[in-house]
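Quick one, probably user error.
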């Protein structure tokens, strides 16, 4: 029985470049939540995709001597490939150049216009192409050479063009009321405070179209071919396109809208926490339950940038560390909602300590002992002692209930720390019980101890699936756990391993990463 629908999205990435570690982090973070919810019995819709219109994409395409569409096709393919490389379990991949998205965006525009919230005027002000964002005079600073910069350090240019506006100024109070009534709408708390103080300063109406004379690469404004929609209005609409908008009464929309979580980076919280709910209120649509803004990842302590030469690609990361290893590292090491750092040394230390020596070693040595000493079959337990009962009941009764609130808040570093506490409890249990000694002294007791351990490993491997789907699957395969018995609901005594079922000689799942010695100069 399903616990109900759960709709989760990533931001959709600009196709002006290829995916890097930042995109990979967001995709993995969202994937972990989607998988956690599926394993917990929810009917999940997980969306990711690409944001293909706007001046930034158009300009980069031109620099590359390509049409915007051909350029977008080329780079969107890289983002699609990234979902495969990282084993992302998205149910849909939207491209904003798709027909369905034109229909949804134009329908939303028409709705806002009918509501009286869109009106023609003229935009005169600063625009950052890098951020595809408008800035006010007081937000702009002058650099040494007379160039102007917005508050986030990107260059802004003066723009004057006829433009349609959205009556955002009318929504300040409604938005403040939303943040007040639903404190969970903006997560984490630090982002919520920023947004509230920004809205309290008063909102200006928002320019929502670009004139043909300056930009043609966009979705045409309904009824006015001189204009294309502002890329953020187009992009945000993607979340309802996929739910089937404008079919508001359609089955999919009824089931999945409003979204449960939008997962985004902190740089785009203004768009998601101010513009998006204002558009939705205007269109009479329900609001998403929460926007979670994660932090930024730096590499070796520095902001990723082409000029520094520290931009890490998802392909390279998987090749160097292994897929589940990199998924694990990012989820374990980047603190909830804060900026994080990626360092090669930290990655190797974590992977070796927690995976090779931790979970990998626990599974490998338990299964090897069983393979060698129990006729290569899951042993039959005798009656349980207190320590056996304590270990298993802790896992059966407390593990998943303890993880749920942490997962709900995207605290996957805590989810993993808690699972690893169980792993270290298993290690202590082995040290206390010394099963290899029991082999001669009390073989029946050895069987019980190994059974308790392998049953604990079964439950732990079920719980690690959201973060490490492949490796956890390999452990569960080695234990002979049927594919249909790998949900969180199966972490109980009723689904315990069947004694007597055969196991193959175990294969290590997490190899130790050995740092190669720097090449020594040949002695001459
Ligand atoms: N196209 C917009 C989003 C539109 S959503 C309706 C956009 N695209 S982006 O390609 O620039 O960024 C995509 C996502 O990746 C954003 O959530 C952004 O915050 C995130 N990241 C980009 N660089 C990042 C890091 N270095 N670290 C973590 N996340 C980062 O913004």
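Nope, works fine. Designed sequence:
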């Amino acid at each position: 029985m399903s616990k109900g629908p759960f709709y989760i999205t990533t931001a959709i990435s600009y196709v002006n470049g290829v995916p890097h570690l930042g995109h990979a982090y967001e995709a993995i973070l969202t994937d972990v939540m989607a998988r956690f919810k599926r394993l917990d019995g929810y009917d999940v819709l997980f969306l990711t995709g690409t944001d293909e219109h706007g001046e930034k994409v158009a300009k980069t395409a031109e620099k590359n001597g390509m049409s915007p569409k051909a350029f977008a096709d080329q780079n969107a393919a890289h983002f699609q490939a990234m979902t495969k490389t990282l084993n992302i379990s998205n149910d849909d991949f939207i491209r904003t150049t798709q027909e369905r998205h034109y229909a949804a965006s134009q329908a939303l525009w028409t709705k806002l216009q009918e509501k009286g919230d869109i009106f023609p005027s003229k935009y005169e002000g600063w625009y950052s192409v890098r951020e595809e964002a408008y800035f006010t005079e007081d937000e702009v600073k002058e650099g040494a050479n007379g160039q102007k910069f917005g508050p986030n350090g990107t260059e802004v240019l003066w723009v004057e063009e006829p433009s349609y506006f959205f009556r955002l100024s009318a929504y300040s109070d409604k938005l403040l009321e939303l943040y007040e009534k639903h404190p969970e709408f903006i997560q984490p708390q630090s982002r919520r405070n920023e947004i509230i103080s920004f809205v309290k300063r008063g909102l200006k109406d928002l320019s929502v179209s670009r004139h043909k004379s300056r930009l043609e690469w966009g979705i045409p404004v309904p009824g006015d071919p001189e204009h294309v929609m502002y890329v953020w209005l187009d992009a945000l609409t993607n979340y309802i396109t996929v739910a089937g908008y404008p079919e508001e009464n359609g089955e999919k929309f009824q089931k999945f809208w409003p979204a449960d979580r939008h997962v985004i980076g902190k740089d785009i919280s203004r768009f998601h926490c101010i513009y998006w709910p204002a558009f939705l209120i205007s269109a009479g649509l329900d609001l998403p339950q929460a926007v979670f803004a994660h932090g930024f990842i730096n590499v070796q302590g520095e902001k990723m940038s082409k000029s520094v030469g520290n931009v890490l690609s998802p392909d390279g990361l998987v090749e160097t560390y292994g897929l589940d290893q990199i998924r694990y590292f990012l989820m374990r090491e980047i603190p909830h909602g804060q900026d994080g750092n990626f360092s090669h040394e930290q990655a190797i230390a974590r992977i070796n300590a927690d995976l090779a020596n931790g979970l990998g070693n626990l599974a490998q040595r338990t299964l090897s002992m069983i393979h060698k000493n129990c006729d290569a079959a899951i042993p039959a337990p005798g009656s349980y002692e207190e320590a056996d009962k304590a270990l298993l009941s802790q896992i059966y009764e407390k593990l998943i209930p303890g993880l749920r609130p942490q997962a709900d808040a995207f605290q996957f570093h805590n989810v993993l720390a808690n699972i690893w506490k169980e792993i270290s409890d298993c290690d202590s249990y082995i040290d206390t019980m010394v099963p290899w000694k029991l082999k001669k002294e009390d073989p029946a007791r050895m069987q019980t101890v190994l059974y308790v351990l392998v049953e604990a490993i079964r439950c732990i491997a079920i719980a690690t699936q959201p973060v490490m789907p492949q490796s956890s699957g390999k452990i569960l395969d080695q234990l002979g756990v049927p594919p249909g018995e790998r949900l969180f609901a199966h972490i109980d005594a009723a689904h315990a391993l069947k004694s007597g079922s055969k196991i193959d000689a175990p294969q290590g799942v997490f190899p130790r990463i050995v740092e190669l010695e720097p090449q020594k100069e040949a002695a001459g």
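Residues 519-524 have pLDDT under 50 and may be disordered.
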